[in-house]
Write a structure and sequence with these properties.
By secondary structure, this protein is of the alpha+beta class. The chain has a domain of 63 residues: Roll (Ubiquitin-like (UB roll)), CATH 3.10.20. Helix content is 34%, strand content 26%. It contains three helices and three strands, in the order αβββαα. The chain is flat. The termini are far apart.
């Protein structure tokens, strides 16, 4: 699409409308966070890369599917970047429980 060029105007076509409608439907029907329930089975997933960590907290709900409860991610500090792989993974676990 050449809309970034000077002097080009947007002509809203049916294909643009279809794409917009598809995106709108995907954003409004996607997974949303559920409230934490201490009676449900809970799963904590963590991961670490060279420069960041990520955490997902999920629960097994009545529909027998895992639903997201919370997310957390952050960049490692300059000191943490130098950690060994197993220490970065442990930092992700510790960050998950702190958060």
């Amino acid at each position: 699409m050449d809309l970034s060029k000077k002097g080009i105007t947007l002509a809203w076509t049916p294909s643009y409308q279809d794409a917009f409608d598809t995106l709108k439907q995907m954003f409004t029907t996607g997974s949303i966070l559920t409230h934490f329930d201490h009676t449900l089975p809970t799963k904590l997933e963590t991961d670490a890369s060279d420069f960041a960590l990520g955490v997902v907290l999920s629960q097994l709900c009545e529909d027998e599917k895992w639903h997201y409860v919370a997310f957390h991610s952050r960049k490692f500090s300059l000191a943490e970047i130098n950690y060994d792989v197993h220490d970065k993974e442990m930092a992700a676990i510790v960050a998950a429980f702190k958060e």
